[in-house]
Amino acid sequence: MAKKEIKAVVKIQIPAGKATPAPPVGTALGPHGIQIMDFVKQYNAATESQSGTVVPVEITIFEDRSFSFILKTPPTPVLLRQKAGLEKASSNPGKEIVGSVTEKDVEEVAKIKMPDLNANDLEAAKQQVRGTARSMGLTVVG
User: Fold this and answer.
1) I want to staple 125 with a disulfide (CB 3.0 to 4.6 A). Which of 67, 105, 110, 136 is the partner?
2) Contact (Cβ atoms closer than 8 angstroms) between residue 34 and residue 67
3) What string of DSSP letters covers 55-98?
4) 94's torsion region: left (phi>0), alpha (psi -120 to 50) or beta?
5) What confidence tens digit (pLDDT) does each residue in 6-19 have?
6) Distant-in-sequence contacts of 94-97, Cβ < 8 A, 24+ apart
7) Prediction pTM value
8) In sequence order, which residues have a C-beta less than 8 Å from that of residue 131 and are 6 or more positions away?
9) What is the DSSP string of 40-56?
10) Of 105, 98, 102, nearest to 141 (Cα)?
């Protein structure tokens, strides 16, 4: 079978198991002419176990209007907010501390994010997570 021609690659962040044809999904996929409900059903089925988190997805749209998608790991700030038990991060990072995470939390987040980070080892991944925590107004303790 010949390779399909790629028409577009669309990246969006959607709450797991809660995709609907409304924006942002409809506005991102509609112009490319794919069946939005097919994507919504497949995405919701694939992410139902991760309910409550935001799961980025990379959708590859082909010339024949078929598609495939790859689920990514949740964004680092979302994982850190869950670990710290916060609704949102600091609106004034660097000057305002809104919470803290432990070194163990940082390591858990780094292990989850490892496939999507450009880090060579776990220590480098932990450094990236610590930097994200700092930029959110979180302190790392322990």
Assistant:
1) 110
2) yes
3) EEEEEEEETTS-EEEEE-PPPHHHHHHHHHT-SS--SSTTT---
4) left
5) 888 888 888 887 88
6) 94/137, 96/137, 97/137, 97/138, 97/139
7) 0.72
8) none
9) HHHHHHHHGGGTTSEEE
10) 102
